[in-house]
Amino acid sequence: MPLIFGKELPIAKLGGFMSKKETVLVTGGAGYIGSHTVKQLLGKNYEVVVLDSLVSGHEEFVLTEHFVEGDIGNRELLDETFRKYEPEAVMHFAAHCRVGESVRDPAKYYENNVVKGLTLLNAARDSGIDKFIFSSSAAIYGDPEKVPIKEDAPKEPENPYGQTKLAFERILEDYTGAYPVSACSLRYFNAAGTDPEGELGEIHDPETHLIPVVLEAAAGERDYIEIFGTDYDTPDGTAIRDFIHVNDLARAHVAALDALRGESENYLAYNLGTGQGHSVKEVIETCKEVTEIDIPVREGERRPGDPPKLVADPQKGFQGLNWKPEITDLTPIVETSWNWIKKRYGIN
Ligand code: NAD
Ligand code: UFG
Known about the structure:
- The N and C termini lie far apart (46 Å).
- It is globular and about 55 Å long.
- The strands form six sheets. The protein has a seven-stranded parallel sheet with strand order 7-6-5-8-9-10-15, sandwiched between helices. Strands 16-13-18 form a three-stranded mixed sheet. A two-stranded antiparallel ribbon has the order 1-2.
- The protein has ten helices and 18 strands.
- It has a single domain, classed as Rossmann fold (3-Layer(aba) Sandwich), CATH 3.40.50.
- It is α/β, with parallel strands linked by helices.
């Protein structure tokens, strides 16, 4: 490898020309959405560095050879990592992300998602990194007045998790107004599905997300799936969500990096969803069709803090990111998850 200013630089051979590979630092790249994004970045010929403490991640999901095991709150480690790899951009996935836990233990969430996130942002800025892409959430909207939800809808998070995501978005917006940095907040709706090649999957411990929970019941890993509330003001009485395939989220990150390179605006924020809503009962029916298993279902009480309906209006992202979800039906999303669950639990 050639040495430029005393540093080894990775070189890619593209179309007959030798050019330096761009490097992206991915925090939380051992987690569910981060690892799928790392795979997309590697496929686009980026050099990728993962920084992850493995607090909820999995080393087997780290697909890059450049893995720094450590905490985003460790300023010394951050400075050393930025010096060593000189990334063009940071994609920041690392966070705690269980809504119920954030209500019981808000300190844990403000500390990790805001305080440590700020340490990361300051270290990146001090190292001269001027592009920052942040995993935000539909949780910043709380219980929306209007659905589908546009980016300028009122932001009234109903739990500490959503508050931490909104707080960090505001920090980013202020930083981009004052310093020579640009940032993009990607507000995911319900991330779902897994790598169609079966290399990566979804493991949250405990798992609380609807699709894997239903499929774990199909796999016999749970006795039944409990529907949290059947008395919502929706056509079948169950809550409605916008499920977006994790690979479509991953592709949006690559698109956001391109957008930050070209944009005159310094702060961008986009809702990432398909724009289609599916009820909890519809999801369970789709899982029954895909698995061909009569999954045991119980009807229970509403889960505190769950809005009845969260569906994105994704039009702004379609334009601004020049991106669209490739998977818009629930069935192929569930199929990828089912393949993963079968692999994980050794089912034929
Ligand atoms: P995940 O738990 O699978 O991944 C999070 C990763 O961050 C893990 O690998 C964990 O080890 C790492 N991490 C956490 N704190 C860290 C720290 N202090 N230092 C270093 N590493 C740390 O979660 P996920 O579902 O992949 O979510 C990724 C991001 O997307 C999170 O920011 C989450 O809030 C956001 N998000 C997720 C969803 C969803 O439906 N899963 C929806 C909206 C937003
Ligand atoms: N649900 C059940 N039974 C279960 C699990 C979930 O009925 O066993 C219901 C929930 O009550 C909710 C829907 O299925 O109505 C979806 O629940 P998830 O837990 O899968 O997802 P949420 O919509 O609660 O939350 C997800 C992410 C959050 C993010 C939020 C909005 O987990 O990080 O979407 O983006 F903030």
